[in-house]
Amino acid sequence: MPEKEVFKLSNLLKSYEGKRALSLSSLKIKKGERVALIGPSGAGKTTLLNLMANTIKADRGEILIDGIPMTEYGFGKQLHKKMGIIRQQFDLVGQLAVIHNVLAGRLGEWGFFKSLLSLFIPQDEKVAVKALKRVGLEDRVYERTSKLSGGEQQRVALARLLVQHPEVILADEPVASLDPARAEDILQVLVKLAREEEQTLIASLHSVEYAKKYFSRIISLRAGEIYFDLPSEKVSPEDLNNLYSLKEMK
Ligand SMILES: Nc1ncnc2c1ncn2[C@@H]1O[C@H](COP(=O)(O)OP(=O)(O)OP(=O)(O)O)[C@@H](O)[C@H]1O
After folding, report:
1. What number is the ipTM of this complex?
2. Which of 4, 56, 81, 212 could form a disulfide with 31 if both were Cys (CB 3.0 to 4.6 A apart)?
3. Is 4 helix (H, G, I), strand (E, B) or coil?
């Protein structure tokens, strides 16, 4: 049986002020794949993730999610159920208790009043506590989020993802702002959770070492185009040298 494609991108073009940021003819990502996006600064990694998350629009081309055009999903609950996003800035509200930030993963499903009520009496508390247990923060549930370290805050963002339980996780530089030990720790948790939940994971990373260690497929971008797209174990030092060399840059 053929494996199911979560993403099928064709003839995509995105420019900013007339300058091409990303152009790709075809890209398919299968359900359950763990894909790392690598490449020099400005190569188009964030642009690609934002297009996949529907937070920006392409100038032309088509994105199919589970065979259905992105445009048919709109910005509603359906897409929220499908995709979760995690960024290096964590996108947490520091003044709120940890539990409220975790339960923000439910906002896409809750109506306005339930969301508002939850700020006073946390709704689905058990679900949030369970998620916090899985990321090792069960003793910080009611603490103010800003009091947590960067690594702990990123774990809160992971617990929020667990509560949201999307089919696909798009992670934009999820560990860039952490020190190397914490970065690896968070990446390990992220990959483990995605594997356990059978989620598709697509993450942009600056560390080639982590890309090779934790991801099965590496897509490299350079100057807005796919430079190579290979199983991790097939990526050679020469591929990487060429990818990051300054000489041939367009
Ligand atoms: N909002 C914007 N307005 C104008 N140009 C933009 C905008 N966002 C991105 N760009 C340009 O598009 C190109 C691709 O940027 P993008 O952020 O996708 O790269 P990246 O690979 O994620 O880089 P980095 O690793 O530094 O985060 C760059 O030339 C960038 O300057």
Report:
1. 0.97
2. 4
3. coil
